[in-house]
Amino acid sequence: MVSRLWINGVARDLDILQGGTSTGANSIAISPNGNKLIIVGGDFGKFKESEKNIACFNVFLTPNTDQKHKSIRIQKWAQRKNLGNPNGYKSGVTFLTNQLLVACGTSGVDI
Questions:
Q1: 99 — alpha (psi -120 to 50), left (phi > 0) or beta?
Q2: How many distinct helices (H) and strands (E) make up the chain?
Q3: What is the pTM of this model?
Q4: Is 72 helix (H, G, I), strand (E, B) or coil?
Q5: Is 73 left (phi over 0), alpha (psi -120 to 50) or beta?
Q6: What's the rounded Cα separation, in Å, for the pair 44 and 41?
Q7: Which residues are paired to 68 by β-bridges?
């Protein structure tokens, strides 16, 4: 079993711990300005493990033609790498501001 995110009809793999009976993505949050998407999870059977328990996507607006003055901007989502991981398994996440979020789970709360 795998955790994926569907964006514009396309399934995107998540760089989050998955494949086991107690692993995967568990919560998703979108920033107030709509430019970031955060997904948390991990392994609730090993709730102290902090590897691969968060995934982040940023949105970029790109032109749909080489003639930028005539183009319509299209949203492109890119998964961000090298995030700092929260401490252990997380089952919930929400944005407080566009740059600040809180994640909670059996391992505690991280801001």
A1: alpha
A2: 0, 9
A3: 0.80
A4: coil
A5: beta
A6: 8
A7: none
pLDDT digits (tens, 9 = 90+) for 67-101: 656 556 666 777 777 677 888 999 999 999 998 99
Taking the C-alpha atoms of residue 48 and residue 88, their distance in angstroms, rounded to an integer, is: 4
CA distance 92 to 95: 11
**How much of the chain is helix, strand and coil, in % rounded to 5?**
5, 50, 45
User: For tokens 């607006």, what's the residue?
Assistant: 61
> Which amino acid does the sequence have at 106?
T
- Phi and psi at 70, nearest 5°, equal -105, -5
Query: Looking at this protein, which amino acid is placed at residue 68?
Result: K
Amino acid at 59: V
CA distance 34 to 57: 11
